[in-house]
Design a protein that fits this description.
17 strands; 649 residues
Amino acid sequence: MLAKQYPTVQSASSEIINLQAILNLPKGTEHFMSDIHGEHEAFLHILNNASGAIKEKVDLLYSDSMTKGERADLATLIYYPHEKLEEAEEAAVSAEELGNWYKVTLNRLVDICRLVASKYTRSKVRKALPQNYGYIIDELLNTNIGMFNKKEYYTNIISTIIHIECAKDVIIALCDTIKRLIVDHLHIVGDIFDRGPRADIIMDCLMGHHSVDIQWGNHDVLWMGAATGSRTCIATVLNNSITYNNLEVIETGYGISLRPLALFANEVYQNVDTSCFATKIVNNNVTYSPKDLELAAKMHKAIAIIQFKLEGQLILRNPQFHMQDRLLLDKIDYKKGTVKIDGKEYPLSDTDFPTVDQNAPYLLREDEVRLMEQLKAGFQRSEKLQKHIKFLYSKGGLYKCFNGNLLYHGCIPMEEDGSFAEFELQGEKLSGKALMDHAEAVARQGYYAKGGTPEKQFGKDFLWFLWCGKNSPLFGRDKIATFERMLVPEESAWTETKNPYYRHAMKKEVCLRILKEFGLEGQYSHIINGHVPVKTKQGENPVKAQGKLIVIDGGFCRAYQPTTGIAGYTLIYNSYGIRLSSHEPFDGVKDAIEHNKDIVSTSVVFERADTRIKVAETDTGELLRANIEDLKWLLLAYKMGDIKENHNV
């Protein structure tokens, strides 16, 4: 097979030389982000500025020749080329002035692009270039203007670009190339969905990224379950979205009509107390009318009651989930206005549930069944949602081992003594890596198994279990207190006890044991974790267990920022080591473009490599060495005459 690809001694030898050279290049930059929660503007900005790496390159090249404001303007141009080009055109008083701006800007962008491309082979850089103008950019990047006869050649290319009015397109192409080359690979460590306004925009961006992997978060698997047609997951998605008054992603992003829910809520909950179901207003810049808020509360109560019923049905048909303690509708005493939770009686704020049959509290009424069928059809027929969920399955999983690091969103469930917790799933007892592998397989089964089969039903139910199940590896708590937070005023009932993992993982020896479980024992191996916001303003450090555990959930989501005190952590792992960046809240794209206002970030290099890390030390390097070894065997076969060279190929 190799002989077909490399039919001569010369072609095989050339490839060995090429691969051996690549092994000695610096490793590519990896960018880690987590818990984005639909905050598309902040996500896109941090992706555009590569957590400050682009600004660093601009400062490196031009700190002596450009003012701070000029450097900020150039960096913003790279982030948002279309918008900044329009701004430059409007500011220019003449065609000559605009032409001079184009000339200076093109030269500066070529310099930056040449710098970020310097650690890659020319072949890899060429593949990264846009189809249009790729040849021209390649020439500009690889022309040494100090060489005899080359300066005029280079200058003429720039002049011709401006003369034939292609400067805007080439500038956009250069900016896109810089952003593509600055980060070799992107890791999303879970929770793209919920809370923020437009998770669909984030998914569109990820689908266009050149190299990305995703570790599913509990909010992601909930949407994955909704896309499969799980009524329980659909009701929960809607409950979450209405709670944060965030229906834009459902209606505008995915084109799913909520009119059936609005009509149902208006009819059934017209004269019902909905004070416990008022939505949270996270964005203070948006004004809502009292009528809108009233309808939202009715819709919220309607879907929440349906959710509690469907959850009860799911728990009853899956006793292996051990979640019987979450069956609460049948524990309500309507005369006393109380509910019994874990053997203790609590007063309820609301018992006006017109659709709940006290004798069969988990049974949906006929109108609720019809409503859920309409909503289910909306989720399953949303072409965009289905496309995004298929992408999550193709690029995602419960965990990822990559270049010595272990990435997962939630936890590796543990017992109180620090041993790996054992789950019995489908008759098999599983823990650690085996649990994660099996759980991922069942999650895939929920989407891809044949409709109407027991495998399909269990897979859909399991996606909901991963969202909030007792000590699920993505949830990591004993319960989700949705019912209690809505209806029980006594806050002691709201407690969600974390899995012992979150206590034991603070110890280096435990993290080393987890890494070993997944086959990682290198000196520079780490666990990179999301899910639990780091309370920075209370002095909590995201780097734990003597540097072996890095938690990068710092509050992308606006709803969490008062708790964390910042607006997210991101991680950069390049050939020099690992750098953690904390980010201040983002004021919006408009402010960034008009005032060159970048996200204020603070970076800390917490682990520097003794020597610059090369491709040879990465997973890619391992594959390249295997390829080189195979090619050496091919060379030997040619030389021994076992295979004849084919010079005609």
